[in-house]
Write a structure and sequence with these properties.
Elements (H helix, E strand, L loop, with lengths): L5 H31 L4 H37 L3 H28 L1 H7 L7 H13 L1 H16 L3 H25 L4 H22 L17 H32 L4 H37 L3 H28 L1 H8 L3 H17 L3 H13 L3 H27 L1 H31 L4
Length: about 450
């Protein structure tokens, strides 16, 4: 981790992460694809509505997973294995308990929650059917993400990949079986998701017992303010980023509902496509993070900078290729998930707008991951909230009021450009900080 050239080390670390992220993206894409075969804009829209809650569940998982994982990688770099082990168990069981709380509260307030997420009256029955099942899986959905992140930060990305990949393959097989063969409809898609994620959860638990990975045990949990402070510092950027992505989706659904179920369905489909397009970039960044953490903890700051620039260059080229393909084949991509002329027309314009600025995310995301892993909570959290919170939420409302549906379609493009302009001076400051002698 501290000697292999970063141009060889990061791709090796990143490959399992890229596969894991691409496969994770399939969870929602598979549901959207098979639910789209029900020939109902309302059903497709419901999956898009519930996606915002799933983003909250993921945000909780990333909060505990990234928070504990960043601490673990630095402490292993310092050879403090006892504290690393205690943090692993504390982060995992805390996430599991939070998932149980989300499940209970969500089921108690199911219908108000559905409306809050952006459901219309016509979408509501489908939303409740899908949402009620997804909530049952919240405990292991949150804790699976903790296991995935902790394994990555220990350098065991291959175990994380196997766990996530197995669940995704199972999900793709269960979707048609439960939706069409057993005639469960949209609820079948939800059952397929939580069953497959439970299988992933079990496999990831097994991965924690293999090799030299830190073992999880309830007796290792230490409810110390010290540990939760570090979880907060390391995980807050992820919580802010993922949580605000959920709030942004709710705002998007609320703005789009004025234009009917087709608009909600179209924007939901575009979100899935862009999420899949960015998955490889996120995965590559996740391969950079343990390299960044180990070398920062070991005081090898030149390797941190070298790894950052290498990751930015690779992901920029990747996103540029994805953007070109997305722009050229936008109608065909949207029609895969919902073969409806109105959905295709709305989704095509939105997808092409987003492709214009998509490659700028390479700098933004790699910089944010670098700041987060180094423990720079303030700049990392600011950049985490900038894209979907500081810029997208006000932008989508302002443009919706002034330009109508085209404003909604171009809101993400405008927000991405503003985020990039903010991120440049912040990350340059971080790189200069790494060049200075550390006290």
């Amino acid at each position: 981790m501290t000697e292999t050239p970063v141009s060889r080390l990061i791709p090796r670390m990143a490959l399992p992460c890229v596969v894991s992220m691409l496969v994770t993206a399939f969870y929602n894409m598979a549901d959207t694809f098979f639910v789209g075969m029900l020939k109902s804009n309302a059903a497709t829209g419901a999956v898009g509505v519930v996606f915002s809650l799933m983003a909250i569940i993921q945000a909780i998982g990333f909060f505990f997973g990234q928070g504990s994982g960043n601490f673990i990688s630095r402490e292993i770099g310092h050879k403090n294995y006892q504290e690393a082990s205690e943090m692993a168990s504390t982060g995992f069981f805390s996430a599991l308990a939070t998932g149980v709380l989300i499940c209970v509260l969500g089921l108690l307030f199911l219908e108000p929650l559905a409306y809050l997420l952006g459901s219309t009256d016509t979408i509501l029955p489908y939303t409740k059917a899908y949402l009620s099942v997804i909530l049952l899986g919240a405990p292991w959905m949150t804790s699976s993400l903790v296991l995935n992140n902790q394994l990555r930060f220990q350098g065991s990305a291959a175990y994380a990949m196997v766990g996530i990949t197995s669940g995704a393959v199972l999900n793709i097989g269960l979707d048609p079986l439960l939706i069409f063969v057993l005639d469960l409809g949209i609820a079948g898609a939800a059952w397929a998701t939580i069953i497959s994620q439970f299988v992933s959860f079990c496999l990831l638990l097994v991965g924690c017992t293999k090799g030299g990975n830190l073992k999880l045990h309830l007796s290792h949990v230490k409810l110390k303010p010290y540990y939760y402070l570090w979880i907060f510092k390391g995980g807050l950027p992820s919580l802010a980023r993922q949580g605000l992505a959920s709030v942004a989706t709710i705002c998007l659904n609320q703005a789009a509902r004025t234009y009917g179920d087709a608009a909600i369905a179209a924007m939901g489909v575009v979100q899935r496509i862009m999420m899949f397009g960015g998955s490889a970039m996120i995965g590559f960044g996740q391969g950079f993070q343990p390299v960044c953490g180990f070398n920062y903890g070991a005081g090898l700051y030149h390797r941190v900078k070298e790894g950052f620039w290498f990751s930015v260059k690779v992901t920029f080229v990747l996103l540029l290729a994805v953007s070109a393909a997305g722009f050229a084949w936008a109608p065909q991509l949207v029609s895969i998930f919902r073969d409806d002329p109105e959905v295709i027309a709305i989704g095509t314009a939105a997808l092409r707008f987003q492709c214009v600025t998509f490659c700028l995310q390479s700098w933004v995301v790699m910089g944010n991951m670098c700041q987060q892993t180094m423990g720079l909570t303030v700049p990392a959290t600011f950049m985490a909230v900038a894209r979907q919170g500081l810029f997208f939420i006000p932008t989508v409302w302002i443009l919706a009021l002034t330009l109508g549906l085209p404003g909604i379609q171009m809101a993400q493009m405008v927000a991405d450009l503003l985020t990039f302009l903010c991120s440049v001076p912040i990350q340059i400051w971080v790189l200069k900080k790494l060049s200075q002698p550390q006290k």
